[in-house]
């Protein structure tokens, strides 16, 4: 009797985690939940949906991959949810620098170390925009004024203080010689960032490059600089100068990748690394990257883990300087 119960439990557990065959390979046995740690329409949501769509349409994965939005806490609500799915490879989530920044701020008890990094797929970059009629025409002009009186210039972003839009700005400003402890940053998470910029409530908009394109096309704003290593490709995007070409030797990469719960089986990790590699090499994914202005930044395994460790150390140092470290 006891043996029967034990066998039943083992079978149930094995079924929930997927199928590991005799040769040690793993494959999913049910739909794979793709979690976007924010509402619909943002970068996490778009990335999760485009990846799931490509996996399904290119028949790289033969199971459904429904995208589930779990907004809240700058990502913390979703991370708490995934943390409870320990070892279950049927739950993945997309993330980016907030996975490092939010825990370092003390706003999440889950850190990147609580999850299994599978693959980084793209890189996006920050852009710093001002009204079309603003007096500054480049980053150096802006930063010269900020060196004289940092608090006289207000920077706005969607993310909370100490998270991405704030940190990408201060990282570049610091390299330009600005006292970043005096930078005045305002968080607007209800969608009013551009309105505030255009009505003169704030001076500088720190955002992702894609968020600025339509307003630049409309002639309402101008981009003083972006955080990429070199100019991006694409209509409008190729006109945006980098901070580096303006003599400011610093970059900020908004990496975006996928993670699973902690303690995933090695065979399941190997399965996803292989599938993400095939996704990265597909023509369909290349088209999606071009459509959204995303750059390729593909990493798996130890390379990805080392990258995350280095990024975490850099973010921690910046937050400590700002007095925002945990």
Task: Provide a quick synopsis of the model.
The protein folds into 2 domains: about 30-125 and about 255-320, Bordetella uptake gene, domain 1 (D-Maltodextrin-Binding Protein, domain 2, 3-Layer(aba) Sandwich), CATH 3.40.190.150; about 125-255, Periplasmic binding protein-like II (D-Maltodextrin-Binding Protein, domain 2, 3-Layer(aba) Sandwich). The chain is about 40% helix and about 20% strand. The chain has 11 helices and 12 strands.
| Total beta-strand segments | 12
CATH class of the largest domain: Alpha Beta
CATH architecture label name of the largest domain: 3-Layer(aba) Sandwich
The ordered H/E elements are: HEEEHEHEHEHEHEHEHEEHHEH
Instruction: Determine the structural class based on helices, strands and strand pairing.
Output: alpha/beta
Query: Main sheet, how many strands, which sense, barrel?
Result: 10 strands, mixed
* N-C termini distance: 52 Å
Keywords:
326 residues; alpha/beta; D-Maltodextrin-Binding Protein, domain 2; two-stranded antiparallel ribbon; 11 helices; globular; disordered N terminus
Task: Show the helix and strand layout.
Elements: H1 2-17, E1 19-20, E2 26-27, E3 33-36, H2 43-57, E4 67-69, H3 76-83, E5 91-95, H4 98-104, E6 116-131, H5 139-148, E7 154-157, H6 164-175, E8 184-187, H7 193-198, E9 204-208, H8 213-217, E10 221-226, E11 253-260, H9 266-281, H10 283-292, E12 295-300, H11 301-322
Parallel strand pairs: 3-4, 3-5, 7-8, 7-9
Antiparallel strand pairs: 1-2, 5-11, 6-9, 6-10, 6-11, 6-12
Family: Belongs to the UPF0065 (bug) family.
Pfam family, one: TctC
Protein name: Tricarboxylic transport TctC
């Amino acid at each position: 009797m006891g043996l029967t119960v034990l066998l039943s439990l083992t079978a149930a557990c094995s079924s929930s985690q997927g199928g590991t065959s005799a040769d040690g390979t793993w494959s999913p046995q049910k739909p794979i939940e793709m979690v976007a740690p924010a509402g619909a329409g943002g970068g996490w949501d778009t990335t999760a949906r485009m990846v799931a769509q490509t996996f399904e349409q290119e028949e790289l994965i033969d199971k459904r991959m429904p995208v589930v939005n779990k907004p809240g806490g700058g990502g913390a609500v979703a991370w708490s949810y995934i943390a409870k799915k320990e070892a279950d490879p049927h739950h993945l989530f997309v993330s980016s620098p907030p996975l490092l920044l939010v825990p370092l701020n003390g706003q999440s008890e889950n850190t990147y170390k609580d999850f299994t990094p599978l693959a980084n797929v793209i890189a996006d970059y920050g852009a710093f925009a001002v009204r079309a009629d603003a007096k500054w025409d480049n980053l150096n002009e802006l930063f010269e004024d900020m060196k004289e009186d940092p608090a006289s210039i207000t920077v706005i972003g969607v993310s909370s203080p100490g998270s991405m839009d704030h940190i990408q700005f201060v990282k570049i400003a610091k390299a330009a010689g600005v006292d970043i402890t005096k930078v005045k940053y305002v968080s607007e998470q209800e969608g009013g960032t551009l309105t505030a910029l255009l009505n003169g409530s704030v001076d500088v908009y720190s955002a992702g490059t894609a968020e600025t394109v339509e307003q630049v096309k409309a002639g309402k704003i101008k981009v003083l600089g972006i955080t990429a290593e070199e100019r991006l490709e694409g209509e409008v995007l190729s006109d945006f100068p980098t901070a580096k070409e303006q003599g400011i030797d610093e970059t900020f990469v908004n990496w975006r990748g996928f993670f699973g719960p902690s303690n995933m089986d090695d065979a399941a990790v190997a399965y996803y690394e292989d599938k993400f590699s095939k996704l990265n090499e597909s023509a369909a994914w290349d088209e999606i990257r071009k459509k959204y202005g995303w750059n390729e930044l593909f990493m798996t395994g130890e390379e990805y883990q080392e990258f995350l460790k280095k990024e975490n150390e850099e973010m921690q140092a910046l937050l400590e300087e700002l007095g925002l470290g945990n």
